[in-house]
Every structure is written in C-alpha cells, then in structure tokens.
C-alpha cells in the first residue's frame, strides 16, 4: 500500500465530500477512516464522517462523532443541530430538543429556529 501523504489526505477528504453529495455515505466513511487515522485531531474530517454516518443511518456512530466534535467545538451550531437530528431520528426527542435549542441560540439560522420551537400550547 502506498505511503499516505498530506496531499493524499486532502484528496481523500475532498473525494469523501463528493461521495456524500452523490449519496454514497458508506464510501465517504471508508475514505474518511484513513484520513482520521492519520489526523485524529481533524474536527472537519470527524464532522464530515458524522454526517456520512447519519446519511447511512448509522446513528450511534454519528452520535459519537457529533459529540466528539462538540467536545472540541462546543459553539458549533451545525454540530448541535445535526446531533439533535440524530437523537430525533433515534426516537430520543428529549435529548434532541436540548440540542435544537443550543443550535438556535448559537446561530439564528431559520432552520435551527424552526426546529427549536416548543410544542404549541393549547
């Protein structure tokens, strides 16, 4: 197997972005595994891998990656929003609500604000 270089890692990262956009999240995860092995500190690679896990319906690995990103970047509104969607998809709406609110508090993105709404009061 050829030796990995920083250029190889960048190429694999970009290829993983394209695979995810082309709806091949498992292919993206496979590429990102080697990038993260070489650069475990890369929050961008972990966030992309979390998104790929989510798209592949691998919710527990997605949750773990989003949580790791948030340990490193607690003010990452997108990571809070994506973690909330992960919790929501796995039926843990109470945990989802907290992260939807955090995302909306960090970034007034209309999608985050809509997701953070409390249930209507009768």
From TrEMBL:
Gene3D superfamilies: Tetratricopeptide repeat domain (1.25.40.10). PROSITE patterns: TPR (PS50005). InterPro entries: TPR-like_helical_dom_sf (IPR011990), TPR_2 (IPR013105), TPR_rpt (IPR019734). It comes from the Bacteria. The keyword Hydrolase does not apply. Keywords: Repeat, TPR repeat. Coiled coil: none annotated. TPR repeats lie at residues 77-110. Pfam families: TPR_19 (PF14559), TPR_2 (PF07719). This is Tetratricopeptide repeat-containing protein.
